[in-house]
Each structure stands twice: as structure tokens, then as C-alpha cells.
Design a protein that fits this description.
The complex is a heterodimer of chains A (about 600) and B (about 80). Chain A is of the alpha/beta class and about 600 residues long. Chain A is built from 22 helices and 17 strands. Chain B has a single domain, classed as ACP-like (Non-ribosomal Peptide Synthetase Peptidyl Carrier Protein, Chain A, Orthogonal Bundle). Classes of the chains: A alpha/beta (about 600), B mainly alpha (about 80).
């Protein structure tokens, strides 16, 4: 919904939130349901009401629990019955510098202040540990905003007794904790309040009148920032950028002006702005955001522009370059298909309002930010939070190269008459075995991101995945696929729970980047082998339909399972007799963890 | 702006905030007359009224306003 995309009109959202909510809930889109516990050190009602809108707009339907006013600590340490039975999927601790219990006094010694700091931090740490032990779910914790006033003036920032220094040191301790604690995320209140303007943000009227720790108008900005973390944790981030070229990546029109006249580099202010934007995109690429081009141009001109010696981006930085005269919505749909992602994982970046309007109308899931003028491009993309990072794995670092190799594979495929010959030519090796600690993060990430090749769409938090890993009730497999073009990383996860001599499949997913490689059969072969070792006689498979997982409706059927039931919603149950199963994958060499 | 115009614009603000197109406010309307008008929604209403008329209520006024009539008096004195 355009009203909820950055840069949004905060006052409008606040005023119209009831009707916006109604519209969102009535739009018929599929959403995952999540329970969010908000433990507040100040009033949270409007923050929650607005965060709900942003989450609904990002495919999440939240239900909320809110602490009684300012009861965050009590609620975390000694949960109310209501909170205990709520069983949150995520806990958000909304504290601000209003909740710091004691600040240094001017008469304090360095040791006194250190003790004060340690005490304050321990109070929070105990709370996080209690929440984590009880609810085993991700925690979002605000850092602290800068103080509204500076008793010592400029020295407040550097003197050990200064409040500003004290808050800075406390924040630093929070970051150390976050850096070393999986499933614990900092909500960067300090940045958002500074960016909004601390003077307005901390207007004491709102604290004294309503016990809000921020001004009313800033609530949407803050709720948006918080919702971005939640959507990232639950796998709703965008994956790829589809970038226009002329007047988006450089100034001017390469086809008309000639490559020597486009504006990019260090010559003028305008060309520097485009260079900075290209550099920003290049850095996004390193973080795993996939770059593609979607431009109305002759391909030759597009490539020439991208090869401009002063540019930061080169043709090689893009997985797919679509430079032609087709409609852009068609090009984006094709890009999505080639990458095996859904169009709603794509952000379309174009300076031309007409192109944006067409894509918005034709492909409603695609995000289309307003790119009005080059000096605002970075801000607009950055503040939109499309790619807000909560976990970062080695896989993210390599993503662009892996997808690029995929596109090359597709080109090769055309040269083979027989598909199996093609698969054999890929020279594939797979590691398929029980989980190892090194891959838990990636495995969890996959369970939250995979929508299409996913029979149950069961989501796991890191804590839940670790519990599965620690239990001997499960047979678990991860699969990593390597071929002559490169390492695809961990691409498949299978989890089954033992019940006597039956194995009930809770999860069967695969990344769409390795579709049609027979990897699913390699996983099945290994699963059956493990079942035989552990005396399992029957494997029971379950398929739960969603809007996105039609491609695996018959997965168990193609595996040779028998369908034993189907209900009116299309949920199906399948069984396989382990004894009579015959190996199916002949194109991948399978290895274990230690080979 | 006449008092009548103020009531007209105020009425639209009330309808937006409470998402109810049947609302008709007059000088005697109070929080008791509108279902969703509680102390939490009051903040939202005040913020929306301030935006509509480009004014700011003072701290004391926000909690002491008895009815819509008083609200309009304050608005009249600020614009």
C-alpha cells in the first residue's frame, strides 16, 4: 500500500489508521500470523497500532500483547499469566532513556560511575536472559536515544559523569551483547531519533501528558523501523533490485547522448551523486542483494554505459541485464522467473514516474519507491528498509555469484538434447547429512525464507532450530550442492520426527535456485538410508497448501509416496514404505559431513 | 474562518479518526457520545485537530477541554 511506503505522511497514517487497517485486512492477501509481545517502559498503544499497519503491509498479520504501563521489567522477570499463555513469537522491549534508573552524579568517582553502568546493564541482561530462557524466541531491544539536555554542555559527551557519555557507554555494552547473542536484535532508536531531530523527538510534553517517550508525530517513523526488524526476522525482506539505467544509474540518456557524455564519476556534482549511488548499490551487492538491470535501451548501449571507466558498477555486477524495448513489467516478471524468486521479492528502481506507475499497476507485489531526484536515491532506498539485516551468513556474501552461475547454467542447458546428459555435465557433488553447528544459522534462514518449494511452510526461530538439533527424536538433513560452476551453499533442509517406526515429515524445503537438478531425489535417497539405519519402516509426508507452494503439491507423489488422505482445504497426507524404496538420484555424488 | 466552517472541518477530522461517517459533532458533543473516544484515542484526535487547523493546544488545555464547544473556542482564538 503506497500510503505505508517510505517516505510516508505520518500525520495521515495516524489519522487514518482505522480505515487503513480495514483496507489492508480486506485485501485478500495471504499473511503469516505472528504473536508479538511488547514490553514497554512507556506508553506503547499507538506504536503498536501503527506497527500493525506496517506489518500487515509486509505479509505479516500480528497479534499483540502489551505490558501494563511501564511494567516491562516485571513482565520479563515474572511474566503475567496473560503473557505466559500468549507464547510470543517475538518479544520487543521498548525502553528509552526515560527508563535508565540512575545517572551519574557530579560527585561520583570513576569507580562509582563504572558500578552504576554495570548495574544498569546487568538489570537489562538479566531480563533478556529470563525472556530468552522462558520464551525461546527472538528479542528486539531498543538502544538509548541521546539525552534532551546536556548538564555539562559539550563536556557531557566526554566527561565520565556526563549523561551523554553514560548513555553512549551503555549503548556500547548493549551492542557487545547483541554482537555475541544470536536472536537478539537492537532497534536503533538512537539513529532514528537523531535522524528525526532529537529536539522534536524528545519534546517533554508527550512524556508529561501521555507518558510517551517520543513525540506523537514520530510514532510512524519509529513503528516503521521496528516493523522492519520484525519482517526481516520472519523472512519478509526483499531479495533483488531491478534497476533502470538512464537518469537512474547515470545522468543523461546513453543512447542519445553517447557514452562519453553521460554523467557519472567525479567531474561534476551531478556525476558524483550518481557515482555515490552506484557505490551504494555495489555495497548492497556485497551484502547479498541481487542486482539486475531493467532498462529501455539497446543492449549494446546499456553495456557501454555500464562499462564507463568512471562508474562504480560494471556489467559483471549484475546477475541479469534486461536492456530491450519490452514493457518493464514483463521484463521484471521474467527476471523473477529466471532467478526463481517471486516478483514481490523485487524492488524496482526507476526515475520515470510513468514506468513506475505501470509496474505498480501490473505487478502489485513489486515494491516501487519514489525516485525523484538523484541526491535522494540513497536515502529513499536505505530508509525504506527493504533489506534490513538481522542475520548475515557467508551465503549472503556469495549470493550474487551463485545466481550468476545459475544463469550461465541455463544458457548451457540449451546445448544438450537430453536433460540427464545436461545434469551429468554439471558434475554435481552434494553434502547431505545431519545438521552441523556451522550451518544452523543458514538452515534457520532457509526455513524462514523458502515459500515455493516448501511442503509445510513451517517456520523456525534459531532457538527452535537449535532445539530440533539437540533432540534425538528427529532425523534431520541439510543438503549443500556444488557443481562445476560453483558452490550453491546449503539449499535444502528436511526434518522428520520419529514416532515408533514411523517418521513424520515436519519440513521439506529446497531453495528454488537448484530446481530441476534432482537434488530433492538425492535428499530422499539419503533420508531413506538414514531411516533404514534407525529402524524406521514408514515415512509420512504432509502437504499444506499456501498461495505460494503449488509447485510441491505432488512432490510426495513424484517421490513414490501413496496419497492416503486429502481434506477439503487441499491438505494431503502421504506414506512411503521404506523397505521397497529404490534409489532415485543418479546424477549427483552424495557425501557425508566428514568426507 | 467562520464557526460553521470550523465545525464542518472538525466533523471531517472526527470521522477520519474514528472511521465512522455517521458522526455529527456539535458544541455539546463529549467523549461519552462517541464509542471509541477514550483517553488513548484522545491523543490521536488532538494531534489530528492540530494538524487540520495548524495550531497547537497548550498542555493544560488538552486535559481540561469538556466538550467540542470548548475545543472550537480554543481553535477560534488561535487562527
Amino acid at each position: 500500500m503506497k500510503e505505508l511506503e517510505y517516505p510516508f505522511d505520518s500525520a495521515y497514517i495516524m489519522k487514518k489508521r482505522r480505515s487503513l487497517r480495514k483496507t489492508l485486512l480486506a485485501d485478500g492477501s495471504a499473511r503469516v500470523k505472528k504473536k508479538v509481545a511488547v514490553l514497554g517502559g512507556s506508553t506503547t498503544n499507538d506504536i503498536v497500532a501503527i506497527a500493525e499497519l506496517f506489518l500487515l503491509n509486509n505479509g505479516i498479520e500480528p497479534t499483540f500483547y502489551q505490558s501494563e504501563y511501564a511494567q516491562y521489567w516485571q513482565d520479563a522477570m515474572f511474566p503475567s499469566e496473560e503473557l505466559a499463555s500468549f507464547e510470543p513469537d517475538i518479544v520487543f522491549i521498548h525502553t528509552t532513556n526515560r527508563n535508565i534508573t540512575a545517572y551519574p552524579q557530579i560527585t561520583d568517582s570513576r569507580e562509582d560511575v563504572q558500578a552504576l553502568l554495570d548495574n544498569e546493564f546487568d538489570r537489562f541482561k538479566r531480563m533478556w536472559e529470563a525472556v530468552s530462557a522462558r520464551f525461546k524466541c527472538p528479542i528486539i531491544q531498543n538502544n538509548f536515544e541521546m539525552p534532551l539536555f546536556r548538564l555539562m554542555g559539550n563536556k557531557d559527551s566526554s566527561d565520565y559523569r556526563g549523561r551523554e557519555r553514560f548513555i553512549t557507554r551503555l549503548n556500547e555494552k548493549f551492542y557487545d551483547y547483541a554482537d555475541n547473542t544470536p536472536n537478539f536484535y537492537i532497534n536503533d532508536l538512537n539513529y532514528i531519533s537523531a535522524s528525526y531531530g532529537l529536539k522534536e523527538w524528545s519534546n517533554p510534553l508527550f512524556w508529561n501528558m501521555y507518558k510517551y517517550a517520543l513525540c506523537f508525530d514520530a510514532i510512524p517513523e519509529f513503528a516503521f523501523n521496528t516493523a522492519n526488524i520484525i519482517k526481516s526476522v520472519f523472512g519478509k525482506n526483499k531479495k533483488a533490485l531491478a534497476l533502470d539505467l538512464d537518469n537512474t544509474l547515470w545522468g543523461g540518456v546513453v543512447g542519445d547522448d553517447g557514452v562519453e557524455h553521460i554523467q557519472i564519476g567525479q567531474e561534476t556534482g551531478v556525476s558524483q551523486s550518481y557515482y555515490e549511488f552506484q557505490s551504494y548499490l555495489k555495497a548492497q551487492r556485497q551484502l547479498g542483494v541481487m542486482l539486475t538491470v531493467c532498462s529501455k535501451n539497446d543492449e549494446e548501449n546499456a553495456i557501454a554505459g555500464l562499462n564507463h571507466p568512471e562508474g562504480a558498477l560494471k556489467p559483471d555486477d549484475f546477475i541479469i541485464i534486461k536492456a530491450n524495448w519490452e514493457n518493464k513489467d514483463r521484463n521484471i516478471a521474467e527476471t523473477a522467473a529466471q532467478l526463481n524468486i517471486l516478483p514481490d521479492s523485487i524492488v524496482f528502481v526507476d526515475d520515470n514516474p510513468a514506468e513506475r506507475a505501470i509496474v505498480r499497476a501490473q505487478l502489485p507485489g513489486v515494491s516501487v519507491p519514489e525516485m525523484d531526484s538523484v541526491e535522494n536515491y540513497i536515502q529513499t532506498l536505505d530508509r525504506s528498509g527493504f533489506f534490513d539485516i538481522t542475520t548475515f551468513s557467508d551465503d549472503d556474501l556469495k549470493r550474487n555469484d551463485m545466481y550468476k552461475a545459475n544463469v550461465e547454467r541455463a544458457a548451457q542447458q540449451a546445448a544438450f538434447e537430453n536433460y540427464e546428459d545436461y545434469l551429468l555435465s554439471l558434475d554435481m557433488d552434494a553434502v547431505i547429512d545431519d545438521f552441523t553447528p556451522m550451518y544452523i544459522e543458514r538452515i534457520t534462514q532457509l526455513s524462514n525464507k523458502s515459500n515455493q518449494f516448501n511442503v509445510t511452510t513451517k517456520r523456525y526461530t534459531t532457538a527452535e532450530m537449535e532445539a530440533v538439533f539437540a533432540s534425538d527424536e528427529y532425523i534431520r538433513l541439510y543438503g549443500k550442492l556444488i557443481d562445476k560452476f560453483g558452490d550453491n551453499g546449503v539449499v535444502s533442509v528436511v526434518i522428520g520426527k520419529k514416532d515408533g517406526d514411523t517418521l513424520n515429515m515436519e519440513l521439506w524445503l529446497m531453495s528454488c535456485r537448484v530446481l530441476k537438478r534432482d537434488m530433492e531425489f538425492a535428499m530422499l535417497d539419503t533420508l531413506v538410508e538414514k531411516c533404514r539405519e534407525q529402524g524406521i519402516k514408514t515415512i509420512k509426508g504432509y502437504y499444506y497448501p499456501t498461495a505460494k507452494n503449488k509447485m510441491v503439491r505432488e512432490l510426495y507423489g513424484t517421490f513414490g509416496f501413496d496419497k492416503i488422505s486429502e481434506d477439503s482445504d487441499g491438505n494431503t497426507v502421504w506414506t512411503l514404505d521404506v523397505a521397497s524404496y529404490q534409489k532415485r538420484c543418479n546424477v549427483i555424488r552424495i557425501h557425508g559431513n566428514n568426507e | 474562518m467562520t464557526e460553521e466552517e470550523i465545525y464542518e472541518r472538525l466533523n471531517d477530522v472526527f470521522r477520519d479518526v474514528f472511521d465512522d461517517d455517521t458522526i455529527e459533532v456539535d458544541d455539546l458533543t463529549t467523549a461519552d457520545d462517541i464509542d471509541d473516544w477514550d483517553s488513548l484515542e484522545h491523543i490521536n484526535l488532538i494531534a489530528a485537530v492540530e494538524k487540520e487547523f495548524g495550531i497547537k493546544f497548550r498542555m493544560g488545555e488538552v486535559s481540561t477541554m469538556k466538550d467540542v464547544g470548548e475545543m472550537v473556542e480554543i481553535i477560534m482564538s488561535r487562527i
